[in-house]
Amino acid sequence: MRPVPGLTLHAYDAVLDAPGTHRGMPSPTVTLVLPLGAPLDVAWEGEPASRVHQWSTVSGMHTRPALIRHDGWQSGVQLALSPSACRAVLGVPAAAVAGALVTLPDLLARAPWLADLPERLAASRTPAERVAVVRTGLARAVAQDHAATPAALGEALRLLGAGARVAAAAEAVGYSRRRLSTLVRAETGVDPQTYARLARLDRARSAVVDRVRSGATAPRFAEVAAVTGYADQAHLARDWRALVGRPPSEWLREEFPMLQAGPVPAG
Amino acid sequence: MSNTNAPRLWLTLQLRDVPATTAWLEAIGFTEHVTHRDDTGVVVHAEYLWPAGGGVMLGAAERAGGQTDWVQQPGGAAAYLVVADTDATFAAAVAAGGTVHYEPVDRDFGGREAAVRDPDGNLWSFGTYAPGA
């Protein structure tokens, strides 16, 4: 099959320490979660009315964490779709699902090629079969040849995602700032500044997780801030609190409780 | 989230031919766990699990061009896999485009072992000898 640019596939099968909650971080992608064994129990943090239990969840860009409750075991397949991958797979711009927690059936009028994915996945017996089922669904999706993100806009999003200022991204593709802002909103559901902010937070989260996994020690946030495009640790901590609702050190303790034994620097 | 049964040792590879080598990994029994592609479709980072325990992290060597903190010669890695049936894994490895390094042989220290290079040139030996098992 043709690979889907801008797509991250994650087949997860995690035996966790105990029942608990996991916070889905805001990111510059659309997330599609296809759980196995039990429906995903998810809500926007601080918004109890948004809580749903679903066998497929598509969530668009958002500036708050998603709260996922689990019973100590989580299994399934998760896809992260860049704006261009969202069009290729779901047939709609990411803006169509911005801030949403919708099911695939809710989107089915526009994505019938994915209709049977949750059932086919439930019938699969091995991790290899699961991945094959998802790949088949993705192959059917990309075969639809949906309208792609316009090239200039795609390039502007790439630049914003890599840390470029809005004025620089606009100039690079020959748009006015105002024009770029309108196009980015229509494509992603968020303004260019927010898109760049989500991308930077995503780089920081990924740097923190990499450091935890490689050393199982608490990462140094000053170093993470320096390599992910923040002016300094204070800016990283401020953005993290604003978008995740807690300082990075607290998030780290919640997501990686095994680090509690060691010192975690204030964030 | 912390997964209590996740591998704690990972082989890391930089690949010249990601599609051929990941297809080969799947043919001998690895399962795709994570694949992250950039906006040009290049695999930035992927993780494949060896279901009995263990994993490989990989990325396209072309992505590593500007990266100086992790330099590795593509095709230069070597690893040993514990398998249930050496001859079956050997057959799958060769059928999927691997190059025979040596055919299955009984070892005097125990177990049966073979070695095959993946499409990128990395050397994989595998056998029934399972230290620590």
Automatic annotation (TrEMBL), chain A:
One Pfam family matching this protein: HTH_18
Transmembrane residue ranges: none
* Top-level taxon of origin: Bacteria
UniProt keyword list: DNA-binding, Transcription, Transcription regulation
Please list the residue ranges annotated as the HTH araC/xylS-type domain. Answer: 165-254
Matching entries from InterPro entries are given as: AraC_XylS_family_regulators (IPR050204), HTH_AraC (IPR018060)
Protein name, UniProt field: Helix-turn-helix domain-containing protein
Highest classification ranks of the organism: Bacteria, Bacillati, Actinomycetota, Actinomycetes, Propionibacteriales
Automatic annotation (TrEMBL), chain B:
Q: Where is the VOC domain?
A: 7-129
Residues forming coiled coils:
none
- Superkingdom as given in the UniProt entry: Bacteria
List, alphabetically, the PANTHER family matched. BNAUNNG04460D PROTEIN-RELATED (PTHR34109), VOC DOMAIN-CONTAINING PROTEIN (PTHR34109:SF1)
- Name of the featured protein: VOC family protein
UniProt organism field: Nocardioides imazamoxiresistens
